[in-house]
Amino acid sequence: MTQTAAAATAEPRRIAPQLHGAERLRHGIRRATAMEAAGWRSIGRALLGRPRVPHGATGFSYDRPVRTILIIFLVLSAIEIPVIDLLVHGIAWLRWPLLALGVWGVLTMLGMLLSHLTRPHSVGPDGIRVRHGGEVDIDLPWEMIASVQRRRHSLSGAPQLSLTGAGDEQVLNQVIQDHSEIEIALERPTLLPLPQGDVTVAAVRISVDDPAAFLDAVRTHIP
Fold first, then answer.
1. Are residues 64 and 132 in the same domain?
2. Is 155 in a helix, a strand, or coil?
3. Strand duo 199-206 + 171-174: pairing
4. In terms of domains, do 106 and 130 share one?
């Protein structure tokens, strides 16, 4: 591989199916609907106090660097509702649609925040579950995992899910604020399901708020 080609494969690539026209539109609608439904489920799980962590497993958050930002946007969205109501209070045909839109926006932001809180990564007897919000849920049984190490990777400008490498060396990156903390090497290139489409990767890199505790939990299941 030439130096230019190697640099290109090291750059994070957005995961996106090659779709066009109506098929691309349908895919976008399905994803938007799935994200909306996941947000509502996350609100329900938060109200019931039931985070999605497998029995006997330990959950590990990954959203701390962006949590404050999401909370700020949530508060601002909530403040907008009475402000808009005050401005258009006397215009009924405009007031009610804007209020409905404002409430929907607040619930959407709340669902986004809670999807991170109620769906953490987890380490348990059956393996590692990799999460990202309400959409991503990757099951990695222990027999599939070759090693788990703390390796900080910086991926400037990378989307929250991206690919690096090529062929049998392709890596899935789940990043928060342009970096990941843990590298999970797989025994062999493995097909993993993602909302954007299935991908075959040799390793998964994830963000974890407490990498040391995550590795301690891993060591109770594999040396």
1. no
2. coil
3. parallel
4. no
